[in-house]
Design brief:
The chain has 405 residues and is α+β, with helices and mostly antiparallel strands. 40% of the residues lie in helices and 15% in strands. A hairpin with a 2-residue loop joins strand 1 and strand 2. The relative contact order is 0.09.
Length: 405
């Protein structure tokens, strides 16, 4: 199958349980097929009657399945493949499987009842071959080109003690945000970014030019065996492989300091994306409106949130007579905490970038310490500290059910 230029392979498998038909070596041959598929970069789905008897999926360690069945399951796990049928397809066993190279390709797996004249059940599912992502153009700050020295010079003369003396905790925090946003607008350029990229993130300029040169040579000669095209293709392949190898090595070396780039690259290799689709409301109707879906998810998350009974708190034995009467928040402590922020993390609901907080830690440590001190003294916290962005994560089952997130 070919979907918008994305090649997808579909395979059908039947493993006979009778040694008299094929012999005793079909277990090893089937595992070799799975290992071969796992070692390729092919986007595929393999379905059929594998005749390995499992009572549940994923299988438990109870030993109810045969040794060969557990070996085959372990082969799937070793190759990071996904099996999507989790209900019995013949009597009390799962014999018919749907195996894919990505975990989110199959959705709405359901049982349509027995085949006519067969003791196996027919299965229905939705297959996501390729997800089309609409390009989103947004304006954001280019922190890599930030003039940090000018930002520090703009903030350093401010007398934070006098500015915050008569303000509440909320007003102090809002003043802090306003000052940071002001210097950001003055000393950080704006970049125009889009989700649609012109070339892979790992491709170097030399590799990109080599690929473009190969295309130009082909357009000129229209012959893949022409010596000029063969030279251009060989050079392009060499530079592309080298660029990808160096990029992946750099990601692996910097994974402790830059996890965000590593997982972004890993997600980019997946052709099926996890997204929140239409949801069934209380009347059983599918809802597509984003605001309504947000409220439905929020109501569900609130309904399963654990609320502790403060009236029935357990009593503990007193181990010491010393009491924690106060928390000392010093400027030095705040400065060290700001310096330890991970700059590759995204901003929270308050829009404060960890990159800016760390870069300006020398001049804002006093301000942050004052706000913390006010918060402890008054028993109040700014609203931004009490809000968060919540993202629904799909677990399993139907994507149309709210309780599956």
């Amino acid at each position: 199958m070919d979907s918008a230029g994305s090649r997808f392979h579909v395979g059908i498998c039947y493993r006979t349980p009778s040694d008299g038909i094929y012999g005793t070596g079909n277990h090893d041959l089937l595992r070799n097929v799975i290992n071969e598929l796992g070692g390729t970069k092919k986007h595929f789905m393999l379905m059929g009657d594998f005749n390995y008897r499992f009572l549940q999926w994923p299988p438990s360690d109870s030993g109810s399945a045969a040794v060969e069945a557990h070996c085959f399951y372990q082969t799937l796990e070793d190759n990071f493949l996904s099996q999507h049928v989790d209900f019995c397809t013949r009597d009390d066993a799962i014999l018919d499987w749907v195996i894919t190279d990505e975990p989110h390709m199959v959705d709405s797996m359901s049982d349509l009842g027995l085949f006519t004249g067969s003791d196996h059940k027919s299965l229905y599912w939705k297959l996501e071959i390729r997800t089309m992502v609409e390009p989103v153009i947004r304006r954001s700050l280019d922190y890599a080109k930030a003039d940090v020295d000018s930002m520090i010079r703009a903030l350093k003369p401010l007398d934070w003690y006098n500015l915050l003396d008569e303000l509440s905790v909320e007003d102090s925090w809002n003043l802090f945000k306003d000052k940071i946003e002001t210097v950001e607008q003055q000393f950080i350029p704006v970049k125009r970014s889009t989700t649609k990229t012109q070339k892979p993130v790992w491709m170097t300029l030399a590799a990109y030019k080599a690929v473009r040169q190969r295309r130009q040579v082909y357009s000129k000669y229209k012959n893949t065996r022409h010596p000029a095209y063969l030279r251009a293709a060989k050079r392009a392949k060499l530079l592309v492989n080298e660029a990808r190898r160096l990029f992946e090595e750099k990601l692996a070396q910097n994974i402790k300091d830059d996890r965000k780039s590593f997982f972004a690259f890993a997600r980019s290799k997946s052709k099926s994306k996890v997204s929140t689709g239409s949801l069934y409301d209380s009347n059983g109707e599918l809802v597509n409106d984003s605001k309504v879906k947000v409220e439905m998810l929020n109501d569900f998350f609130c309904s399963v949130f654990t609320r502790e009974d403060e009236a029935a708190m357990p009593l503990i034995n007193t181990l010491t007579q010393d009491k924690l009467m106060d928390v000392d928040v010093t400027v030095d402590l705040v400065y060290r905490k700001l310096c330890s922020l991970k700059t590759d993390k995204s901003a929270g609901d308050d829009g404060m970038s960890p990159f800016i907080l760390k870069a300006l830690s020398e001049v804002i440590a006093v301000l942050v310490a004052i706000i913390f001190r006010k918060s402890l003294n008054t028993g109040t916290v700014p609203r931004d500290w009490r809000t968060a962005n919540v993202s629904p994560l799909f677990k399993k089952g139907s994507k149309h059910q709210v309780n599956n997130y």
